[in-house]
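User: Show me a protein chain along with its predicted structure.
Assistant: Here is one chain, sequence first, then structure tokens.
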Amino acid sequence: MFDKLCLVVDDAEDIRDPFVRFLTRRGFTRVLGAGSAGQALETIEKQKPDLILLDIQLEGDIDGLEILKRTKAGLSPHSHVVMISGHRELYEEKCKKLGALDFWTKPMDPYKIVDRIKALFPAEEHKTSLS
């Protein structure tokens, strides 16, 4: 089992919800989803997730970059934040300067994501089911 609290932020329900279910089936015991910037900010402030998988392009006035800034500035500065976008060349450097731990490019292979998430927490013992 993987007992870290993971928050998946994506305004595309057809991406976010299946990804949350996939992680849960793979042994991630604490996975939440947020479909808007407001929902993400509220969850980050209240829950202090260990890992935030954060899409950059969100509908509305606040994008993933602003959520990253606010998270690192005080909402939950110790959270590991991984930024996700289909436009690596536009965003990767800026995301890392703002405090993102990593940058993943869409589309993503969900099976590889499990390994990448576990690699972010090397001191942890992982017993995530791969079947």
